[in-house]
Design goal:
A: mainly alpha, Fumarate Reductase Cytochrome B subunit, 3-stranded antiparallel β-sheet, 13 helices, elongated, B: 42% helix, rod-shaped
């Protein structure tokens, strides 16, 4: 009796399996649903979601709403720029500027101080406040530049030399310096803008100066006021780039306050691109203010320049200053032994 | 040289002041983006809505996270 019951159960199960086999075979024969429908094709996919919004956003209940962003394709573009393009652009900008300046130095040599009847006399070119403002901004700029370049090149150039532990420490302090010294730098940019704006308004004299090649081509010196066209370009570059670096830098110091993740990436791209061009431009400024031209450094060193140098490079300004002396609004030019 | 020294001292002083002010007002990520307990949704709502339909009524003017 028991054996008969077991046999009956076996037959029932076998019959059920035999009945279901054709249906299973139909579904798996060629991987298609026999009804002709493809459920996968109708489901929500990545392409469909990106047609609704440039990024795929989920929903989170933790306080960090940004964590809801699941996929942001622009991030791949940003990463490609950050890891592939930026090192090349930065390297070409900085090394290219150094190479150009070295070539210019080899071609032109140091621009010598021309001896004349006014040589040996000194005239005040920049007051103490102007020089403090310049040096505060420039010293911060150097630290910001080096720490900024470390963001781009540090892991590629510095880390292999000093090792990962030392690189981590250096980078940590470089990052602190970058963020904290940005504030006196921004203050310096604002002060320079206020102090030197009136002397940096472009005018017709600048156009003549440019057409004459700034005195670098040919003989003689074109007329110039307190700042020539080249110096005005540096001024507006510093003000323009400094402002752009300040705005984009503040957006990164206070992340996500005014923009989302895409905006943050755009800010970093703009900040880094302007930064490397800014460094290249300032390298030219440093060159012409030091090794490139004899007597130029005194303007920001002691504040007093050789009167003969001033007459050569800023004749209209000298005339105006001497006019002030004649009217009693400025101290007279005193003969001071040349340093 | 004196102007340069004053400028460097001013830069360091302003940098330290900036560091003090920023650090005093800084809230670290683990503090800013953490909660004292598990929270599965906004107060008064749940993840599936009152009808279990996924239609979640939000208070007027409320913007969901990540939107």
């Amino acid at each position: 009796m028991r054996r008969g019951l077991t046999l009956f159960r076996t037959i029932v199960v076998a019959a059920a399996l035999a009945a279901s086999a054709p249906a299973m075979a139909q579904q798996t024969k060629d991987g298609l649903n026999p009804t002709g429908q493809n459920p996968t094709a109708d489901s929500v996919n990545e392409e469909f979601l990106f047609k609704q919004d440039p990024k795929i956003v989920g929903r989170v209940t933790i306080p960090d709403g940004k964590a809801a962003s699941l996929i942001q394709p622009q991030g791949r573009d940003y990463r490609a720029f950050r890891e592939s393009w930026l090192p090349w652009i930065g390297g070409l900008a900085v090394l290219g500027a150094i190479a150009l300046l070295a070539g210019f130095y080899l071609w032109r040599g140091r621009i010598k101080l021309e001896r004349g009847p006014d040589s040996g006399k000194k005239i005040l070119r920049f007051g103490t406040f102007e020089r403090v403002t310049h040096w505060m901004t420039s010293s911060c700029f150097i630290i910001l530049s080096l720490s900024g370049l470390n963001y781009i090149f540090g892991k590629r150039l510095l880390a292999p030399v000093i090792g990962p532990d030392a690189f981590a420490v250096v980078s940590q302090y470089a990052k602190y310096a970058h963020i904290y010294l940005a504030w006196p730098f921004m203050l310096g940019i604002a002060l320079m803008f206020v102090v030197w704006l009136k002397d940096n308004i472009p005018n017709r004299i600048d156009w003549h100066w440019i057409k004459a090649g700034g005195g670098l081509i040919g003989n003689g010196h074109p007329h110039a006021e307190r700042f020539n066209a080249g110096q005005k370009m540096v001024f507006w570059m510093v003000v323009g780039f400094g402002t752009a670096m300040s705005v984009t830098g503040l957006m990164m110091i206070f992340p996500f306050v005014l923009t989302d993740i895409t905006g943050m990436q755009v800010m970093q791209v703009v900040h880094s691109l302007i930064g490397v061009v800014f460094i290249a431009g300032i390298l030219a400024h440093i060159y012409i203010g030091s090794v490139g031209m004899e007597g130029a450094y005194d303007a920001m060193g002691s504040g007093k320049v050789d009167l003969g140098w001033a007459r050569s490079h800023h004749d209209l300004w000298v005339e105006k200053e001497i006019g002030k002396v004649d009217h009693g609004t400025r101290r007279p030019v005193r003969p001071v032994p040349a340093e | 040289m004196k102007a340069f020294a004053v400028a460097v001292i001013a830069a360091i002083g302003l940098g330290l002041a900036a560091a003090y002010v920023m650090d005093s007002n800084r809230v670290l990520a683990y503090q800013a983006f953490s909660t004292s307990g598990a929270r599965v949704s906004h107060p008064g709502t749940n993840l599936v809505g009152p009808q279990w339909s996924g239609d979640i009524p939000m208070p007027s003017g409320h913007k969901p996270h990540g939107a």
